[in-house]
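Final report, results section. Input specification for complex C-07:
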Amino acid sequence: MYDIKWIRDNAKLFDEGLARRGLTARSAELLVIDDERRKAVTAVQGAQEARNAASKAIGQAMGRKDMAEADRLKAEVAALKDAMAEGEIEQARAETALNAVLEALPNLPLPEVPTGADEHDNVEYRRHGERPGFNFAPKQHFELGEAWGEMDFEAASRISGARFVVLRGELARMERALGQFMLDLHTREHGYTEVSPPLLVREQAVYGVGQLPKFEEDLFKTTSGHYLTSTAEVTLSNLVREQILDDLTQPLRFTALTPCFRSEAGAAGRDTRGILRQHQFWKCELVSITAPDQSGAEHERMLSCAEEVLKRLGLHFRTMTLCTGDMGFSSAKTYDIEVWLPGQDTFREISSCSVCGDFQARRMNARFRPKGERSVQYVHTLNGSGLAVGRTLIAVLENYQNADGTVTVPEVLRPYMGGVEQIGKAA
RNA sequence: GGAAGGGUGGCCGAGUGGUUUAAGGCAGCGGUCUUGAAAACCGCCGUGGGUGCAAGCCCACCGUGAGUUCGAAUCUCACCCCUUCCGCCA
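Structure output:
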């Protein structure tokens, strides 16, 4: 969400930013509405001022028992009311129109974000490790899981429909192990506080992170009017909504391991095999709340925390800086981490780390009072996956598979799996 | 689901139609005093908006929205949220 005053003072910057996002200039149109709004406000306030003065005089006249004067003033105020009502209607109209445009506009990219149309214009930031060599043709994750009878799409389909899965046995256990491992790493070594949040939330919480009103179709909504969270970013970021934090010299860092629910409305026919794109999946989320001057450094730190998960699992990945055309609605800059999947012979997104500046903070009304200062400021928010558990499971299966169709358990996961070193059935 | 009570500034909390500004306290900031600190005392101290070069002036905001009134934190209606008790329930 934008501050219209900022647009007034920075119309050119605003339009240039939108242009980099592939959007047309909006400042001229917005400033016309804003001008109408301010004219109405000024008119209404002038009338209110006159009314307040007259009302006060009425009280004083009645105190003196001067009823003639009181009646004369009452007539005066009555005349003001028509003008006021008219102005109020115009003011409400302009405010509604202004807000409707503003709340549907995405965040502006930071200067260093590469300009581009889609994912083809993303720029590699760095990479880690190397592609593992295989002396056999590596299978895709679902070929392994289905062969073991531990990844059951047919049962899931009978129970829930398409884009759901039932995991069983050691595969279910490995999914759980991955989530525990991530949570432990971020809480014990990276300074994040573990949170167990609600999965059903109010509309305003979803609005706060920018998923509403524009992306309602991507979400599941309950009969009670709640939304199922598509990511723990919603709950973790909203922990500071409508708050004025006393101080923010150190970032607040939250992590949560939760199921995530997505309708995948726009993804019909895409990634239909396997567990890559599901209506429900586990994700370990990272969220930081910082002062404005710290969000850039925190973004790099958060990215490193997410990458560390893959490093410890011994997985090859590359980190991309998303171009303007591929960034999410609320983001000012996003890094995607893409893990190597030998079964698919490609890199696939496994984490997305974004810094949102004060864009979400304005929607949530999340502020802080700098130490020793009187005025309040909006916080900066950051969110990142650390990591998507289902996709990490895919990566482990495909990268650690053996020629006989079994999978070696990565060292770091073994303590979480009762010391098991290998899972799956030999073909 | 039923019943009752409640929602006032960063926090607590008074305030049931006006004639001074939402009292007072806590926290915060500045000062006096002090070697320093604490205490005490003095002063400042809500948010958003309009207007103005500025100092300032003005408007709105007491959960939200309507209404009554010359005038609403206060009266009326609807809604939202919270708490407690009962019922149901893992």
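The two ends of chain A are 55 Å apart (CA to CA). Residues 27-63 of chain A form the longest helix (37 residues). This concludes the modelling results for the funded period.
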